[in-house]
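Example 9 (inverse folding). The structure is encoded as follows.
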């Protein structure tokens, strides 16, 4: 559950926000909108990384954030995570129809975002999400703490598809 929340909080931060126009790509109005695939080779994930993971972002601006994450964990089990909320307001993140966390996003700049999350299992996390200038990659850096106080850091890199 901890690993699940960390991955999803990072992804959430990653795709959350931007108003800047993108020079290249499929959505000229908002560079965050689209599909992004986890690049495990470029990422630094404690433990076993997922076999695959894709984020589909359908809204990401100052008024709304909406995305779906689909993937397969290290054992090959499929998962789906959904989020829909507003920046500045804690909103639930759902995994397989069950709430796993409340996440609050902030947008300090057009290419960098922050998040704070509190898991239903007592875990917590903070994250920073950066969009490359060319809009082709998103890098998520997260610091998390489980319910017992154990801390870990991870970096995840997603590539536009």
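The amino acid assigned to each position is listed next.
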């Amino acid at each position: 559950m901890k690993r699940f929340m960390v991955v999803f909080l990072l992804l959430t931060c990653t795709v959350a926000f931007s108003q800047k126009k993108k020079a290249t790509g499929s959505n000229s109005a908002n560079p965050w909108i689209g599909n992004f695939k986890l690049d495990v080779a470029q990422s630094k994930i404690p433990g076993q990384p997922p076999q695959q993971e894709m984020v589909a972002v359908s809204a990401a601006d100052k008024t709304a954030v909406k995305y779906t994450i689909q993937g397969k964990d290290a054992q090959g089990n499929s998962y789906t995570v959904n989020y829909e909320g507003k920046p500045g307001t804690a909103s639930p993140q759902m995994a397989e129809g069950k709430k796993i966390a409340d996440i609050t996003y902030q947008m300090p700049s057009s290419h960098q975002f922050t998040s704070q999350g509190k898991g239903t299992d007592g875990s917590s996390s903070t994250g920073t999400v950066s969009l490359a200038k060319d809009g082709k990659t998103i890098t998520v850096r997260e610091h998390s703490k489980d319910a017992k106080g154990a801390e870990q850091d991870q970096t995840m890199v997603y590539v536009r598809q």
